[in-house]
Amino acid sequence: xxxxxxxxxxxxxxxxxxxxxxRKGSWWADNNTLPGHRGGTGCxxxxxxxxxxxxxxxxxxxxxxxxxxxxxxDAPRHAQSNGTPRNGNSSSRASKLSPQPRQLTxxxxxxxPNNTRSLSTATTTSPxxxxxxxxxxxxxxxxxxxxxxxxxxSDHPSIIExxxxxxxxKKGQFPRIITCPNEMVAMSMxxxxxxxxxxxxxxxxxxxxxTQGLGAAMHNSSSGRAPVxxxxxxxPFTLEGELRGSRTEYIHWIQDVPDQKxxxxxxxxxxxxxxxxxxxxxxxxxxxxxxxxxxxGPVYLCGAREVMExxxxxxxxxxxxxxxxxxxxxxxxxxRDVAAALAGAEAPLVITGYAGRNHAVPGxxxxxxxxxxxxxxxxxxxxxxxxxxxxxxxxxxxxxNEEAIRNADVILVVDxxxxxxxxxxxxxxxxKVFHVDVDPLKQMMPVFYIDAVARYRADTLTVLEQVTGLLxxxxxxxAQLAGDEERDARRTALEVAHKRKLELIxxxxxxxxxxxFGTGHLCARLRELCPDDTLWAIEAVTNTVFxxxxxxxxxxxxxxxxxxxxxxxxxxGALGIKLATEYEAQLAGGGAKGKFVVQIVGDGTFLFSxxxxxxxxxxxxxxxxxxxxxxxxxWNAPRRSLELVHPDGLGSKATNEEINISxxxxxxxxxxxxxxxxxxxxxxxxVDKAADLDEVLRRGIEAVQSGQSAVLDCKxxxxx
Length: 720
Fold this sequence. Notes:
Domain Thiamine pyrophosphate enzyme central: 337-440
Pfam families: TPP_enzyme_C, TPP_enzyme_M, TPP_enzyme_N
Distance between the termini: 78 Å
GO molecular function, one term: flavin adenine dinucleotide binding
Structural class: alpha/beta
Domain Thiamine pyrophosphate enzyme N-terminal TPP-binding: 132-262
Strand content: 5-15%
Number of helices: 24
Organism: Cercophora scortea
Radius of gyration: 31 Å
Low-confidence stretches: 1-122
Mean pLDDT: 85
């Protein structure tokens, strides 16, 4: 029989021994053995933390040759006890495996069934305690996680102890803790931070209910490919004080569910339970490997209180052994096929959606567009700044419906989820399509396909460099690309079309005749008045195209849109982006400051973002952001969806009030909500006339630059 089997008596045997000991008025003490189990083979169990309710030591063994349980020298006697504490007969083997006993402190007794004695439920924590929880935070920091966005609960006593210990003992080498009164906001902050920096951050939530509270933010992180590690506790799995961390509160029964990780597993790249503290650092790094390996995304770990309370020996792992999996480029023959197709194309087109997450990709796309005269670049995702608006090849952001898709003869799709919407627009029948993506099969989508002659799972930047390199080096391809009248004419036509496009956008951005203004005019003025290196956190829904046309982003990383369809991302997302710029500036040194961050959000989406939590956090941690609320009196996306399916139906002729998407007549005070949450310390203003707009924007910008958040309620006209 193995050592494990020989030294692990059945639970029923343990319970009989414990109850027998109680009846005889003795303690469950350290390093004794059950009847029939001599000292060297005693069954060792960590005692309850805070409860330590069945003994004194952190590691407790059961029984003695007489079937009694004795207390070690340093254990105080129970109130009913009347003698000197007995000595435990510890074996050398048990003492090597077990931490030294800790002293119990007296707290209110817990009633026990069958007239059993009430035992203490608290311990004096050793300042040298090294638990699973503390090792967990060390692992995060060593892996590059600098911030934890937390919403704490009854599953986190050891997490809290570790936080305090880290703040006191490891300043500058411990993640910064940001308290978030709502899980959606916590996850969105981590998402925004990771989206800008490509550095994973952590979120800590409370058991199953906190996991459910992540809600749409988990969807956004998954669809948006944001590397975020989520940790949640589990209800304790022991009831009678067997281990430190055993159940101590009513809610521990109510929040005990069959498989907590399944709540979010379908959105995660990896989901697992921590079952021991001895490999917690390996488990954290395994999770982060998944989060950081393409396609990136959220990961989820959970652990019960008993596991997180475990005392373990301090240890380190070799961080260089835990790098993410990297994708490579194309086989040389495949790269040549793509290059040859582009070189011979009459109307070549690149479609992308999130390739700009890698800030080197926009420059690589520009180089390709300069090499292939007449190449156009279309963004059909709006997730990141993928191609600069000041280049003649820029077609802007259009969600899967654009004339260039219909007339292109060669299409290179790179890192894009929805290159076109088949019911509205599709390539011509003879178009040759190549699909290069970190996830070309879209494994999280049950239904996805596009007609492509070839598809490759590869790193987009590497592929672009391969293809451009071939086009510049191969003599045959160079000859095809050499200047002739036809190719020069294509380039000239592209420049003319780009100039005309910008003129049309400028015309649409003019104020209306009645003095009102639309989203286009508002964003054109923001672009003019905000700092040149402003970062834009966008969640404008039906107004997104107008925002993008007017802002015309050109700087890599400057445009970050919600990666999914879970409305409410931008509140926390903008805070995470701002926090990231501040921290990265500190790392750079030299007095550098974080960048100016603007959140542009629809009025309905503003309410989804849990502004009561967002603006409390902004004030509590001094994270000033300018929020622009696009106030069009309700949600208009449902009407657009309705009219695409029932263009002549009853709803198409009904008012917004009739189809239940209007906020009228009770319009929320968006600035007032933010101001209340921040204890009054937010600049707020409303504007509905173009003549007043610049002054309101300037005042909001100045407030944020001085360190105060600002919320501007801007009444915008529809469809412009």
